[in-house]
């Protein structure tokens, strides 16, 4: 059988009109006050062929910064280099409130979108995602609010993050504007979307899939997974890293690139969200396109993750 070959060419995000790169850059740890340094990270992602940027209003407190800090920093970069905005497909998320924790009420969703637009210094967010489901919000009310924001031109299209397949279907059922994407955690260490219907549902309904934490919360990359946090490498992590390292070596790339490639090889066209804030590691993400998989090689990594043979 032919190898699975990856392409760096842009493609549609689900049913939407957005054309996105096959990899995205995530801005959870996009922090600090140095606008020039922040701009260099943005430019490193663009140089690596990444034009799809994913942020959220909640990004900030995990870095000991205020709510909205990551968006505000990107807004300062845009103000410093106005041409950058036009080169980027901009995605953000909202619906998490400090201490609540989730709020998808119509008033809050509208306020969240408008606050993000202000921090980013833009008049339009290409993809806006409900960050986590609010169990006290009816999907019909959520959909009506998001449809209105699309009609007003404040957001281009709608996605969801951390939603179950059923929650995703419920929102899609009430949306007039088509749902564009879903964003689950997915990596060679977090494989639940292969089995819980997330990826099958995305392919059934033509949703784009964005994978957050594609390196298993840093366990498959370099350095600590989160600032100030150490994670012991158990036998499962070692087995997956060993399998990825061996496969990557055959193609002249590192573990991280092999992990990104493993994710992108799935037929759902999954977009791994590169989370590194290191310019060199951002550049190395493009190595993923050098990697090929046979079916046997792809399944071998899954078996390493599951710790048992497939039936």
From TrEMBL:
Lineage top rank: taxon: Bacteria
SUPFAM superfamilies given in the database record: NAD(P)-linked oxidoreductase
InterPro entries named among the record's database cross-references: AKR_Detox_Biosynth (IPR050523), NAD(P)_OxRdtase_dom_sf (IPR036812), NADP_OxRdtase_dom (IPR023210)
Cellular component GO terms, alphabetical: cytosol
Domain NADP-dependent oxidoreductase: 23-300
Protein name: Aldo/keto reductase
């Amino acid at each position: 059988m032919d190898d699975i070959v990856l392409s760096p060419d842009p493609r549609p995000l689900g049913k939407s009109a957005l054309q996105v790169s096959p990899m995205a850059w995530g801005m959870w740890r996009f922090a600090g006050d140095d606008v020039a340094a922040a701009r260099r990270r943005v430019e490193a992602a663009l140089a690596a062929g990444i034009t799809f940027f994913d942020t959220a209003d909640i990004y900030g407190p995990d870095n000991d910064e205020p709510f909205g800090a990551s968006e505000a920093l990107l807004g300062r970069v845009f103000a410093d280099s106005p041409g950058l905005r036009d080169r980027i497909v901009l995605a953000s998320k909202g619906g998490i409130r400090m201490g609540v924790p989730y709020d998808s009420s119509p008033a809050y969703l509208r306020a969240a979108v408008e606050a993000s637009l202000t921090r980013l210094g833009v008049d339009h967010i290409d993809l806006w995602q409900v960050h986590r489901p609010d169990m006290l919000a009816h999907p019909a009310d959520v959909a009506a609010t998001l449809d209105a924001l699309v009609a007003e031109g404040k957001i281009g299209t709608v996605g969801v993050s951390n939603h179950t397949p059923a929650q995703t279907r419920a929102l899609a059922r009430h949306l007039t504007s088509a749902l564009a994407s879903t964003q689950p955690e997915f990596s060679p260490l977090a494989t639940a979307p292969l089995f819980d219907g997330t990826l099958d549902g995305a392919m059934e309904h033509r949703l784009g899939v964005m994978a957050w934490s594609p390196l298993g919360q840093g366990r498959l990359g370099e350095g600590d997974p989160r600032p100030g946090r150490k994670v012991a490498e158990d036998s499962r992590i070692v087995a997956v890293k060993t399998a990825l390292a061996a496969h990557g070596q055959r193609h002249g790339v590192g573990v991280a690139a092999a992990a990104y490639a493993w994710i992108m090889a799935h037929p759902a066209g999954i977009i791994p969200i590169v989370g590194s804030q290191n310019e060199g590691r951002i550049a190395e993400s493009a190595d993923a396109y050098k990697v090929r998989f046979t079916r046997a090689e792809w399944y071998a990594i899954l078996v390493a993750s599951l710790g048992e043979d497939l039936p």
